[in-house]
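Translate sequence into structure tokens.
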Amino acid sequence: MGNLVQTKPKEVKWIEAAMDSCATKAVVSGVAGWGLGVAFGLLTAGLDPSISGVDVHGVKQLKSTRDVLSFMKSRAGSYGRNFGGFGMMFMAIECMLEYQRGSTDLKNTAMAGCITGR
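Result follows.
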């Protein structure tokens, strides 16, 4: 039997190189965090008791659909920006720590969380 060496196509090599980049990891984490933040923002906006109505002199008045949608949009956008920003910051710091320390272990994740935390 001969020595068979399979080479990867150049497209696969490009994708692997891109995914090993700290910038790519940070951007992907930021986009995923933004999506998760938007989902949580919509969920918490729907559960907010102030969305159901305003109490004016003991009379409960319902908000208009436009007001409710505006509130949900602002809450989703706010959560999305926060989650995306923290996700991007965390991943960039973790990736830089991995590069600086030369190892991939739990210490990098813990240190990145401590540095990122408020």
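Note: Residues 65-101 form the longest helix (37 residues).
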